[in-house]
Design a protein that fits this description.
The structure is a single chain. By secondary structure, the protein is α+β, with helices and mostly antiparallel strands. The protein has one domain: Ribosomal Protein S5, domain 2. It is about 35% helix and about 25% strand. The protein contains 3 helices and 4 strands; from the N terminus they run αβββαβα. The chain has a 4-stranded mixed sheet. Strand 1 and strand 2 (about 15-20) form a beta hairpin. The longest helix is centred in the middle third of the chain and has 18 residues, at about 40-55. It starts with a helix and ends in a 9-residue tail after the last helix.
């Protein structure tokens, strides 16, 4: 349902699909398709996304959203700091940060 009704934003390493909710909590799913390669590569991509999300978590708006973070092929070529910057940029564009929502 999120894939059908949510909005999508893309960077070189991440696709963010989101939908604001009134639930007051974030629900996040981390996705890495087989296009990225074998299980080792997919798991590494998801670990990078989870770590970037964890470090960004205290700055996320608490009003709530359903979110899918999808690793793209370039995610495997990036360092964790670059993934963090990309994720923060996507969150700002989606108005999911504390200082972005009114």
């Amino acid at each position: 349902m999120l894939y059908d009704t949510g909005e999508a934003l893309r960077s070189s390493g991440i696709t963010l699909i989101y939908r604001h909710t009134a639930s007051g909590r974030h629900r996040v799913v981390f996705v890495a398709s087989r296009k990225l390669g074998n299980a080792v590569r997919r798991n590494r991509a998801k670990r990078l996304l989870r770590e970037a999300y964890r470090r960004l978590q205290q700055d996320i708006d608490p009003s709530g959203a359903d979110i899918a973070l999808i690793a793209r092929l370039d995610a495997l070529r990036c360092k964790s700091a670059a993934i963090r910057e990309q994720l923060e940029g996507l969150y700002r564009r989606a108005h999911l940060m504390k200082d972005e929502r009114a």
